[in-house]
């Protein structure tokens, strides 16, 4: 196992800069998730960490080794791809042992590690099957097993669950969390899905336009976003961010142009008794919770999350109160005001 230290990383594709002075520390044994919208640089950062892409400047250390210019095979990493990258003509066993064979692992050690990985991933009954005979979830387990048998210092995952259906994605997410607890290894995981990031990570790195926007624990980012971008990206439904001029009766800081409130943090009160009045234009019952889609006087649209048995009707007029400790304030550039 090993930690990761990235300092001053800059990456270009021709004249286009993809990463801007990225510096980041990932602790030994940490599950770190890179998250952000398409094109934000998260996969480029992972591939640069893996050695699949070069960087114009900066350094990368894994453990006590400077691997900035090392080949991928010399970085003591294993990578799991979105596409599984399994050999279709090989059995599960052969896929898992292939990398060990190439690297000259002792045969007895190969057998031992495949047996252990198959036990951890519940693949014992599938070792002699070909990938085409497996479900998507089973193929992803094989890809993870192939990484496990190498016993690397660091595991890298590039959107490994994006090809799975929603139900299987949740199941595999739980399996990966359990795997991390069993192995205690450093894991770096890329996803565009903030729900995956929130549920799996010890540390989340939010990227935006090739730059790190914020680094922190899931709840740090949820409760203390440093910018409008993070506030709206982390959380589902997203934080309501709207013009501060819409509300009254709130203790706003100098320079506040935008305010934010999570959907679950609105208090519903009688019209005129809150900080802003709204009309219910739509309603979604989701079982355990209900979402109200609201419109305020200037046309601003908001979302409120309530208990599943809420009886508020469409077209109802109501007031919204924002508790002071739940209020987020942003300046004209979208930076949080503390």
Automatic annotation (TrEMBL):
Gene3D superfamilies with a match to the protein in the record: 2.40.50.100, Nucleic acid-binding proteins (2.40.50.140), P-loop containing nucleotide triphosphate hydrolases (3.40.50.300)
CDD domains: ABC_MalK_N
GO molecular function, one term: ATP hydrolysis activity
Pfam families on file: ABC_tran (PF00005), TOBE_2 (PF08402)
Highest taxon, organism lineage: Bacteria
Keyword vocabulary terms for this entry: ATP-binding, Nucleotide-binding, Transport
ABC transporter domain: residues covered: 4-234
GO annotations of cellular component type: ATP-binding cassette (ABC) transporter complex, substrate-binding subunit-containing; maltose transport complex
Family classification: Belongs to the ABC transporter superfamily.
Protein name, entry field: sn-glycerol-3-phosphate ABC transporter ATP-binding protein UgpC
Gene: ugpC
């Amino acid at each position: 196992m090993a930690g990761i230290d990235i300092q001053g990383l800059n990456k270009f594709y021709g004249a286009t800069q993809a990463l801007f002075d990225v510096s980041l520390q990932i602790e030994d044994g940490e599950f770190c998730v890179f998250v952000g919208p398409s094109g934000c640089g998260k996969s480029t950062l992972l591939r640069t960490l893996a050695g699949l892409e070069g960087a114009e400047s900066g350094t990368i250390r894994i453990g006590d080794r400077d691997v900035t210019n090392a080949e991928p095979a010399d970085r003591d990493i294993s990578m799991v791809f979105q596409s599984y990258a399994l050999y279709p003509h090989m059995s599960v066993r052969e896929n898992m042992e292939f990398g060990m064979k190439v690297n000259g692992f002792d045969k007895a050690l190969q057998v031992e590690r495949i047996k252990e990985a198959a036990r951890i991933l519940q693949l014992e009954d599938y070792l002699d099957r070909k990938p085409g005979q497996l479900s998507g979830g089973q193929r992803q387990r094989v890809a993870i097993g192939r990484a496990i048998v190498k016993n690397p210092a660091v595991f890298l995952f590039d959107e490994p669950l994006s090809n799975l259906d929603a139900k299987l994605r949740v199941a595999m997410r739980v399996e990966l969390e359990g795997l991390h607890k069993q192995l205690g290894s450093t894991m770096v995981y890329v996803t565009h899905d903030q729900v995956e990031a929130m549920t799996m990570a010890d540390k989340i790195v939010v990227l935006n336009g090739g730059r790190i926007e914020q680094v922190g624990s899931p709840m740090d980012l949820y409760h203390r976003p440093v910018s409008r971008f993070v506030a709206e990206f982390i959380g589902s439904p997203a934080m309501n961010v709207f013009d501060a001029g819409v509300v009254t009766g709130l203790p706003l800081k100098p320079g506040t142009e935008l305010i934010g409130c999570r959907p679950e943090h609105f208090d519903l009160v009688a019209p005129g008794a809150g900080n802003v009045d709204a009309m219910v234009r739509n309603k979604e019952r989701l079982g355990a919770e209900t979402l109200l889609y609201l419109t305020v006087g200037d046309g601003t649209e908001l979302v409120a999350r309530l208990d599943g048995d809420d009886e508020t009707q469409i077209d109802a007029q109501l007031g919204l109160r924002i508790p002071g400790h739940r209020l987020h304030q942003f300046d004209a550039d979208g930076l949080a005001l503390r």
